[in-house]
Specification:
Elements: H1 9-17, E1 24-25, H2 32-36, E2 45-50, H3 53-65, E3 69-72, H4 79-96
Parallel strand pairs: 2-3
Antiparallel strand pairs: 1-2
Length: 109
């Protein structure tokens, strides 16, 4: 898997836009197939990364308003891990002939 020079697309966006811009990443691991089908339960968590805590909380609230389960995944640096999971999920979808594999974190409130 080829990673962006900055480590993740989110980090590249932050670098490009500068520290004065609040960059928040979410939905990288939610299948586009799932997001296009409104009105049904999406059974996976949504990781939210960003350097500004208030901006992260705003996105977390929006995710909750959509009826989904957000996970505060911390700073933009963590987007490296979150974004790399996408390749794994795509591979699982292909291998198991599904369109919507996702990630669910256990043990959190």
């Amino acid at each position: 898997m080829l990673m962006p020079a900055a480590g993740s697309a989110t980090e590249e966006a932050q670098k490009l836009l500068g520290d004065g811009v609040k960059v928040v990443a979410a939905f990288q691991n939610v299948s586009a197939h799932e997001l296009r089908q409104l009105g049904h339960n999406i059974d996976c968590d949504v990781f939210v990364c960003g350097n500004d805590r208030t901006a992260r909380q705003t996105v977390i609230h929006l995710v909750e308003q959509m009826g989904l389960h957000p996970i505060d995944a911390g700073l933009v640096f963590n987007a490296r891990v979150v974004e790399s999971l996408t390749a794994l999920l795509i591979g699982l979808n292909i291998r198991h002939k599904v369109k919507s594999s996702g990630v669910r974190i256990t043990g959190l409130p």
